[in-house]
Specification:
Blueprint lengths: L1 E12 L3 H12 L4 E4 L16 E4 L8 H18 L4 E3 L2 E6 L3 H10 L6 E4 L1 H5 L12 E6 L2 E4 L1 H14 L3 E3 L4 E6 L6 E5 L3 E10 L5 H9 L6 E11 L16 E4 L5 E3 L8 E3 L4 E4 L13 H15 L10 E9 L6 E4 L8 E5 L9 H14 L31 E2 L6
Parallel strand pairs: 1-2, 1-12, 2-9, 5-14, 12-20, 17-21
Antiparallel strand pairs: 3-8, 4-8, 5-7, 6-7, 10-11, 11-12, 13-16, 13-17, 13-18, 14-15, 19-20
Bound molecules: flavin-adenine dinucleotide (FAD).
């Protein structure tokens, strides 16, 4: 195996949004960084590609809002460094049955987390946005000003470009096969399938849906991260109503709690279309995907009914007009994994994965946290206890929650 000869302060494995953000933060602080990906940069085979991701600070868990708020500042900072926008602000609407435990927790967390919000009933919601949104009388809505859309492929490209400007080295088509202790120089040796080997003082592994496979191969340690194949679907807005659903007119990003959990973004990337998918998927092998672009009728029919119920005849609910396959990386409790890998590699390898279908918005804060862990061994201003690997020791479900799962996780997604 050929050693590239170059030694890095940090090697980041995985150039999705988390790895790219980490490379950006480390390089900005003067660290010599190598960012590797197994496929072409900006590929569509992982989780960070496409046209829109929701940003919201409304969470049933109390510990994400601070990371979202930090990320808003960091998104804006990175945008001003690159000179173009990747984050487009608009309000966030969360709504659903008023007795739902997840939505109740969302509302309860707003005050303590200083998330500005207003609670609306069905009548007030009708008049809130240019597009009239219907909800049953038994539902409740919460509108927050911290919301919006992040453009994923463009954002990953932004972090990579800024990292290069800061001196980072980026190499794609480099599948990492081994990460081992460097007994000579200290730190780690990272080897790729095509026979190259790099040395780094530290390593960050942000391998998305491949995390479990890679870490198990390298160390034998099993991280409970399950890849889930999902798809986003776009629906046609009826002629004459397009402006009502446009982000420019203030249409919100939204999450509808209950069965099924449905989310969506305003019309932005494709004029005349609105993105409305179901928050769920079916377990998959990331290397042998089915490339599902629409769920089966047990998921699709309730979604169509939901669209008719909320938007009447202003959005065509007969069939989605466009769809794209994507993967979530699920942990059993839907909380992230951000920790030192431990074992033989101790604190020299940091793992960041299991973003469970809701990580994109927080990529700037996650990158900052990972850079802190690499540089000083601890992350400033954030308590990482909910993200530690040891929460699964003797407790496969992980963090205890008093509300239900957010993501529908089942083979039935296809039926
Ligand atoms: C349809 C969909 C909708 C979503 N909506 C939202 C949303 O609205 N809001 C939100 O905040 N989040 C959302 N998410 C979640 C968010 O997109 C993910 O949490 C985030 O993109 C995860 O990024 P990542 O860098 O961890 O993984 P990835 O983007 O998958 O990156 C991992 C990278 O590691 C590389 N890799 C893996 N193994 C190796 C190896 N051995 N060697 C080298 N490279 C390797 C892969 O090729 C890949 O490029 C959504 C996700 C999906 C799929």
């Amino acid at each position: 195996m050929e050693n590239s000869g170059e030694a890095f302060d940090a090697i980041v494995v995985g150039a999705g949004v988390m790895g790219s953000s980490t490379a950006y933060h480390l390089s900005k602080r003067g660290y010599k960084v190598l960012l590797l990906d197994q496929f072409d940069f900006l590929h569509h085979r992982g989780s960070s590609h496409g046209e829109s991701r929701t940003l919201r600070a409304t969470y049933p868990e109390p510990y994400y809002a601070a990371m979202v708020k930090e990320s808003v500042i960091l998104w804006e900072q990175a945008q001003s460094e690159i000179g173009y926008k990747v984050y487009f602000s608009t309000p966030q609407l969360d709504f659903g049955p008023s007795d739902g435990t997840s939505l109740r927790s969302v509302i309860d967390n707003c005050g303590p987390n200083s998330v500005p919000h207003r609670i609306l009933d069905a009548h007030q919601l009708l008049d809130e946005f240019p597009a009239r949104i219907n909800m049953p009388e038994s539902w409740v809505a919460v509108v927050s000003e911290i919301g919006g859309v992040v453009k994923p492929t463009k954002a990953v490209s932004m972090f990579q470009t800024l990292a290069v400007k800061n001196g980072a080295v980026l190499r794609d088509n480099m599948e990492v096969r081994e990460i081992e202790r460097d007994d000579v120089r200290g730190g780690v040796l990272v080897s790729t399938a095509n026979g190259e080997r790099f040395s780094g003082k530290k390593c960050v592994v942000a391998a998305g849906a491949w995390m479990k496979k890679l870490v198990e191969r390298v160390t034998g340690i099993e991280i409970p991260i399950t890849p889930l194949e999902t798809c986003v679907m776009y629906w046609r807005i009826k002629e004459g109503h397009e402006a009502e659903f446009d982000i420019g007119g203030g249409f919100p990003t939204f999450a509808s709690y209950g069965e099924p959990y449905i989310y969506g973004t305003p019309s932005l990337e494709f004029p005349g279309l609105i993105k409305i998918p179901v928050h769920g998927g079916h377990p998959c092998d990331p290397d042998k995907r089915k490339w599902v672009t629409r769920p089966g009728p047990t998921v699709l029919e309730p979604l169509k009914e939901w669209i008719r119920g909320r938007f009447g005849d202003r959005v065509g609910a007969s069939d989605p007009v466009m769809a794209e396959s994507c993967m979530y990386s699920m942990t059993p409790d839907e909380d992230f994994v951000i920790d030192f890998l431990g074992g033989d590699l101790g604190k020299d390898v940091v793992v960041a994965g299991g973003f469970s279908g809701h990580g994109f918005k927080m990529a700037p804060a996650v990158g900052r946290i990972l850079a802190d862990l690499v540089i000083s061994g601890e992350a400033k201003g954030v308590d990482l206890k909910h993200f530690e690997l040891r929460r699964f020791e003797g407790n496969p479900k992980g963090n205890v929650k008093h509300f239900g799962d957010q993501v529908a996780f089942s083979a039935a997604f296809l039926n």
